[in-house]
Design a protein that fits this description.
This protein has 97 residues and is mainly alpha-helical. It has a domain at 1-65. Helices cover 47% and strands 0% of the residues. It is built from four helices and no strands. It has helices at 16-34, 43-54, 76-81, 88-96. The protein is rod-shaped. The relative contact order is 0.09.
Length: 97
Amino acid sequence: MKDHVSGEIGAAELDPLQFRRTLEARIRSFTIAAAAVSPVVAPALGEAISKMIEGETLIRGPFVESLPDFEKGESIEQLVSEKVLSEKWQGMLKKSA
């Protein structure tokens, strides 16, 4: 999977601070472009809009959510032996081992 912050494939962790900086820079760039003020036609207005947007905090955070551990249950072997799962599940385990 491609990491949307670093662009590297298979990045293990997402740095929430770097993500915030990257996201804010992209939002800032988009907002300036969406203002549709040509720096050629109205350079003073374009500069004023850029300065105004640059001075604003567009994102608060980072927001980090902590989730509790997934509650672990019985193993596949136990569920097969209790007839909760089909015996075909045992075959899947042997192939992946």
